[in-house]
Amino acid sequence: MLDLVEIYKSYQGAPLLNGISFSAKESEIICLLGASGSGKSTLLQIIAGLELPDSGQVLWAGEDLARIPTHRRNFGLMFQDYALFPFLNVAENIAFGLKMENLPQVVINKSVEEILDQVEMPGFANRKVTELSGGEQQRVALARVLAPRPRLLMFDEPLGALDRGLREEMLTVLRRILRKNRVPVIYVTHDQEEAFALADHILLLHEGQINRAGSPEELWREPGSAWVASFLGLGNILSGKYQADGSIQTSIGSFRTTACVHTHHPGENVDILIRPDMETMTDGENYLEGIVRDVLFFKNGYKVTLQSDLYFFLPYAPKVGEMISFNLPKRSVQCLG
Question: Which residues pair with 298 in a beta bridge?
Fold first, then answer.
């Protein structure tokens, strides 16, 4: 339905987007995930028609949208700051886009009522938006975007202003509503938890390009590069040299990994990922030992950091200064190419 073809954009003479191409299908939720300044929001504004690319195409069902103004694209866009009208009540805020379509008032009233039910705010129609909590204002903003029944939904860091509790609550609401509406969704965030909780497909933006794309499970299992593994916080990353016997020699020892999809030659520089989520192993191909530098309670266990800077999540708390050792299986060590 939505296709981006070779989108290029520069900012102050420096390249910001460098040949971005991807597609969004019906009911698919795509998250654009990346650090601040990676071009996520600019890409969203180009899709919405608020900015023009230097080159490239934005297509909807094969139609080039270059000459279609923002208000005629029938795309819904929601920002972090809600942008609610403080002088209008809840119902009037939600109805704003519907009134722009010159719909009969009876139709508008029915739509507002239905949308309020959908965002779990029945009975709030006559409330002032200035009297609502942050989470409630967020739901009103979502309702206003949904009311005109857009053919594409876009979100730009919509939960960034909420505290952790409200953010988790809104994630649940968003996930349910977006699945029910069955229109394509482009969701911009720098928060990995949001992306992994919502997305069918994640696009990782880095230095103006899509560095990695895939489902949350695919990115988690196969990050593909040291940058992706580091950005997603998947574990310990070490550099080493590939050996003739298939092992990788690092500054803290030699490691054997699971089967690598890359082709390597002896002496070649290789990055590896050591997954930290494990219990103490008693059998495995990779021996590792170290002195405990720090122990921090973390959810249902302990984050244990060694003097080598490697860290692991353990079900018990060793003492600082204690020497501990592991026999890591190959499945805990992954080649990143």
Answer: 301
CA-only gyration radius of the chain, Å: 24
Residue closest to 54 by CA, chosen among 102, 109, 1, 9: 9
Longest CA pairwise span in the chain (Å): 76
Residue pair 325/252 in contact by the 8 Å Cβ criterion: no
Domains, in order of start, for the chain: 2-221 (3.40.50.300), 226-335 (no CATH)
311-314 and 333-335 as β-strands: parallel, antiparallel, unpaired?
unpaired
- Using CA atoms, how far residue 286 sits from 193, 235, 266, 289, 326, in Å, is 31, 16, 19, 10, 8
pLDDT of residue 10: 92
Q: Are 20 and 43 in contact (CB under 8 A)?
A: yes
User: Two tokens at 198?
Assistant: 């919502």
285 φ, ψ (degrees, to nearest 5): -95, -10
Q: Which residues contact 163 (CB under 8 A, 6 or more apart)?
A: 134
Taking the chain, what is the end-to-end CA distance rounded to the nearest angstrom? 34
Please write the tens of the pLDDT for every residue from 311-330: 999 988 999 999 998 888 88
Alpha-carbon distance of 156 to 50, in angstroms, equals: 13
pTM of the model: 0.88
Integer Cα distance of 329 and 277 in angstroms: 12
- Scanning 101-221, the segments in alpha helix (DSSP H) are 105-118, 134-146, 164-181, 192-198, 216-221
For the stretch 266-311, pLDDT in tens is 888 999 999 998 655 556 778 888 999 999 998 788 999 999 999 9
Phi-psi region of 157 (alpha: psi -120 to 50; beta: other; left: phi over 0): left
Which tens digit of pLDDT belongs to each residue from 88-122? 999 999 998 888 888 889 999 999 999 999 888 99
